[in-house]
Amino acid sequence: MSKPLKQIHLAAHFPGVNNTTVWSDPASGSHIDFESFVHFAETAERGKFDFMFLAEGLRLREQGGEIYDLDVVGRPDTFTVLAALAAVTERLGLTGTINSTFNEPYEVARQFASLDHLSDGRAAWNVVTSWDAFTGENFRRGGYLAEDQRYQRAESFLAAAHVLFDSWRGDEIVADKVGGVYLADAAAGSFTHSDAHFDIGGRFNVPRSPQGRPVIFQAGDSDHGREFAAAGADAIFSRHGTLEDGQAFYADVKGRLAKYGRRDDQLLILPAATFVLGDTDAEAADIAHDVRLAQVSPQTAIKFLEQLWNRDLSDHDPDGPLPSVDPVVGENTIARGRASVRMYRDPVATAREWRARAEAEGLSSRELIVEVTGRQNFVGSAQTVAERIDHLVQADASDGFILVPHVTPGGLDPFVDQVVPLLQERGTFRSDYEGTTLRDHLGLSVPAGAVGAASAV
To answer: Where is the Luciferase-like domain (predicted)?
Structure first.
C-alpha cells in the first residue's frame, strides 16, 4: 500500500534587513511602515498560508562598535504589530518571537493570551533564548547565560507560562444577572509556580483563550534546543532545508518524541526557505546570481570575513584573495559583546577550508562569501519549485516551509500567484482554510490541561 500524501504547511517570514534581503532593490519598501506588514499578511492569507512569522531583535547588531549593513534602524515591537494585524486578517496565524532570557513569564503569558483573544485563536509564540551579553546590556539583569543555563531558564519559563495559561479551566466566567457584568468565580486564574528560576503565585487576569494555549514554536538547533522542542514545542523553525540534511534533522527530532509520550504528528518541522522564481529554470538561476551579489556587497563580505578572522580587515580587498594570515583564536573582539560564543568551532580549520575552495574554484574573497553564505533553497520556474517543495515534504525532510522572500513587502506575491496553485493542483496544499484557529491549520489538538476557551453564560 502506498504512503498517503502529506499535506504541506506553508508560512511566511517578514524579514528585517539582513543578508537575505535586497534592501537596495527598487521594489523594496519600508520595514517599519504598517502598510508593509499589511501587504505581506494579506498576501500570505490570500495564499491560505498557516501563519505569518515575525522575528525579534532586542538590539541593533553591531560589529566593531558600529551598526553595519546587516541590520536596519527601526524594528517595531512584535506584539504591537501582531495585534494590529489581527484586525486586518481573518484566518492567518500570527507568530511572534519573544525571548525567554530577558522577559518574565507572567507578562509574556498575558500578552500572548490577549493576542489569542484578539485574533480569535491565531496566536503563536516562538520561544528563543539569548547568549548575547551585548543585548543583555539593554536589560536590568544584563550579562548572558551559558547554553545549559539558557535552556534551563527557557524550560522553566515555558512551564510557568503553561501554568498561567491553564489557570482558567474554561468554565469559571458567569454573568451578573443584574448589571450584565461578567464575573469570575473564586478559583479563576489562581496559580503558583516555583523552581530554580521563578517563584511566582497569584491570579492570572486573562481568561482562557480560544486555543487554550498559543501554539509554541522553537528555533534552537543545538542538542539542548532539539530536546527542548521535543519536550514541549508544537513546531520547530529549522534551518535544515535540503534533502539529506532535512531528513537527518527530521528523524532525529521526531525520534525524541516518544520518551515524552508524544506522537510524530504533534511536532511539525518547518525549515526557513528562500526562493527565486523565473519563467524558466535558467532565467531563475541568472536572477538568483544577481540576488546573491546584491545580498553580499563588498562591505558585507568584509564583515563576514572579520567574524571568522576575528581581526580588523577594513583594508582588505574584497575582490582579492582571502587573507593569508590565520584567524585570531580566543575571545571574539570583532563581534563585540558576544565573547561567550564563537561563530565557528575551529576558525583556523574553517579558514583553511575556505582558502582551499577559493583556490580550487578561482574565487575572490567576496565570491567565496557569496558561496558559503548562500541561502537560496528553491530556484527555478514555478513548476520546478512546486515539485521540489512537494518532494521534500513527501520524503520526510520537513512538514513544510517558512518562506523568506528577498524583497519586502511584495516578494511573497509571485510565490502565492504562481507556486501555490500548482501545489493545490497536486492535492498537497489546501484550496481554502478548513478551520478558524492556528491549531486547526496546523492539525494540532489542544494540549492536555488546556481544555478550550472560556465562555460566558
So the answer is: 25-395
| Helix/strand/coil for 439 | helix
Cα separation of 128 and 145, whole Å? 13
97 annotated as a binding-site residue: yes
The DSSP bridge partners found for residue 212 are: 209
- Apex CA 418: angle with CA 282 and CA 17, to 5°? 80
pLDDT at 456: 29
3-state secondary structure of 297: coil
Rounded CA separation 110/115 (Å): 9
Q: What is the pLDDT of residues 174-187, one digit of tens each?
A: 555 445 555 556 57
Task: Quote the pLDDT of residue 342.
Answer: 42
CB contact at 8 A, 222 and 241: no
Return the higher-pLDDT residue of 196 and 35.
Answer: 35
Q: How far is the C-alpha of 376 from the C-alpha of 292, rounded, in Å?
A: 9
Q: Which domain holds residue 39?
A: 9-280+376-442
Instruction: Output the CA angle 9-11-14, nearest 5 degrees.
Output: 170
Q: CA distances (Å), 45 to each of 42, 85, 356, in order?
A: 5, 11, 46
* Strand 93-99 versus strand 123-128 pairing type: parallel
Q: Name the grid cell of 126.
A: 516562538
Same domain? 304 vs 178: no
Residue 398's identity, in one-letter code, is S
Say which CATH number the domain at 55 has: 3.20.20.30
Residues 385, 380: Cα–Cα separation, whole Å: 6
Query: How far does the chain reach from its first CA to its final CA, in angstroms?
Result: 50
Residues 270 and 343 in one domain: no
Residue 151 among known ligand-binding residues:
yes
Residue 290 included in any domain: no
Q: How many CB atoms lie within 10 A of CB 139?
A: 15
Return the residue matching grid coordinates 518547518: 270
CA-to-CA distance for 386 and 380, rounded, in angstroms? 9
